[in-house]
Amino acid sequence: MTLRIGVIGTGAIGRDHARRINHVLGGAKIVALSDVNKASAEAVKKDIAPDAVIYDTGEALIAASDVDAVLVTSWGATHEQYVLAAIAAGKPCFCEKPLATTAEGARRIVDAEVEHGKRLVQVGFMRRYDSGYVALKQAVDTRIGAPIIVHAAHRNPAVPEQYVTPMAIHDTLIHEIDVFRWLLDDDYISARVLFPRSAARSHAKLKDPQIVILETARGTIINVEVFVNCHYGYDIQCEVVGEDGIARLPEPMAIQMRLGAKLQNDILTDWKDRFIASYDVELQDFIHAAAKGTASGPTSWDGYVAAITSDACVTAQEKEGQAVAINLPTRPALYN
Ligand SMILES: NC(=O)C1=CN([C@@H]2O[C@H](COP(=O)(O)OP(=O)(O)OC[C@H]3O[C@@H](n4cnc5c(N)ncnc54)[C@H](O)[C@@H]3O)[C@@H](O)[C@H]2O)C=CC1
Ligand SMILES: O=C1[C@@H](O)[C@H](O)[C@@H](O)[C@H](O)[C@H]1O
């Protein structure tokens, strides 16, 4: 069976996911596209999915009888409405992060999916599918003893002027928020944020870099440097200190050179390249589960917890240095 997929939001990542579904992965085909900017959907049809039908609205695409499953890759603020519509239609749905821009919105999705009685939603936290993180998790689970500290960094070369201080949490740190819950199999109980002096390349409405400190229920302390105008490259670092040893996220494969009296290798500059393989693996996982009428991988619950934690981190930005408590509601049995 070929899974017939519709894509809502055909900008940077929607186009890229459409490309991988039609040209890289197996078992699925893009049959429908929708974007408020129709020219963008038309360009994806022309370049990638010539057989796809273009719908005026995301809701019309979800309702189409020949669409089996949906990808929601529009702007974050529009995700909730489309994911709720997909659940109401009983169609598997892959939603890019964030699941919703408020914790209340994410909760509405959890409640709708629980009411439906079966998983339909996968959230686009692709790091769980990255081979480096998978190897790191294996080392954390079996080699280095119980985790005590995590040192991490999320660095982007540059962000535009519209990127303001809370976006470092909602748009950027949200990947660490999700991946460390998974890596440590633990939940957060508090967040703190510290701001060193802002770097010279920062913008008027952005305090950059910042350090986010998360504490887990088992007492692990995670410190993450978020530095989104670091200039030198796109760099994701993670080191877990355990009772018996230390495990470090591998660097992406790069050719080592002896050149100009230096031992060197290039550092990536674009997030699309850093996680290119994990996007492939997460979407193949979506296709397999959706073909069976369900979903696997990161859940709506994970998206909801990420939203609650993000909100706590933004409050912690406003109360610099103070710990902000994170209280999670009871997890519904659907997500155990
Ligand atoms: N997992 C990851 O590593 C990444 C995830 N993302 C997430 O993917 C989402 C999209 O990001 P980008 O592709 O970078 O943005 P983008 O701005 O390039 O594309 C978004 C597209 O959605 C369309 N759109 C906006 N509102 C819409 C609506 N109501 N209905 C239909 N289409 C609508 C826009 O016209 C645009 O073409 C965001 O939520 C972002 O956080 C983005 C980059 C990386
Ligand atoms: O999701 C992403 C972007 O939106 C975000 O801006 C980057 O910092 C992340 O690394 C990337 O994965």
Automatic annotation (TrEMBL):
Residue ranges of every copy of the Gfo/Idh/MocA-like oxidoreductase N-terminal domain listed in the record: 3-125
Pfam families per the UniProt record, alphabetical: GFO_IDH_MocA, GFO_IDH_MocA_C
Catalytic activity field: myo-inositol + NAD(+) = scyllo-inosose + NADH + H(+)
The Gfo/Idh/MocA-like oxidoreductase C-terminal domain, residue ranges: 138-320
EC number: 1.1.1.18
Keywords: NAD, Oxidoreductase
HAMAP family: IolG (MF_01671)
UniProt similarity note: Belongs to the Gfo/Idh/MocA family.
Function text: Involved in the oxidation of myo-inositol (MI) to 2-keto-myo-inositol (2KMI or 2-inosose).
Subunit comment: Homotetramer.
Protein's name according to its UniProt entry: Inositol 2-dehydrogenase
Originating species: Rhizobium puerariae
Gene for this chain: iolG
